Amino acid sequence: MAARNTGTVKREKLRDSLFVGSGGLTYPRPREKGWFKCPRTMPILLELLGTKAFSGGKDLTRTYIGVMADNYGEGIIEVRDEAAFAQEAGFEGPRGVRSWRERMKALKVLGFVDLVLGASGRVNFVLIVDPRVAVDRLLETRGGDVSEDWKTRYRAKLILTRSTSEDVASIEEEEEEEAKATKAPGLKLQNAPDVETGRQQQGNE
Fold this sequence. Notes:
Elements: H1 6-18, H2 42-49, H3 52-55, H4 61-68, E1 76-78, H5 82-88, H6 96-110, E2 113-117, E3 123-128, H7 131-142, H8 148-160, H9 165-182
Antiparallel strand pairs: 1-3, 2-3
Helix pairs in contact: 5-6
């Protein structure tokens, strides 16, 4: 079992002191699989998607959450049942799928997803774009439609959660260095005696 960091231990102690006996009620549990990764900026992102300037008066938030929830970590989603996705986003009846498709296309225009369409405009596959990339592009092209208050809160949240592009690059560099350290080549002896058989192992020629 991997060692828990000090932050985890501290929060668990705080939880157990404030909510006695709540350890078995919290979610997700250590080995839980029925959940999805979500950026801590999500509430602020949904606020942006809910503004009329970007939504055009249509609710994009439930549609976005619906596809995010089906992302298992690879960033690609196969849409086998459009009607099911539409219902989860709150669209039922004859126009349900059509309404869902309209919102998926709107999310694509905003840069939060990319789509592979099939016959008659059917959504076959969805690519989940890194929300930071999507927001950066929006700020470059339509920054005037975003309030300064939103920009400040969004950037502050990225910094507080160590989610800026610089933070991610630093973490990736650290992981690469750790991987190199664990895979450091050792001394390889050729023609060393085989302990089990006593035969000489021939080196690669």
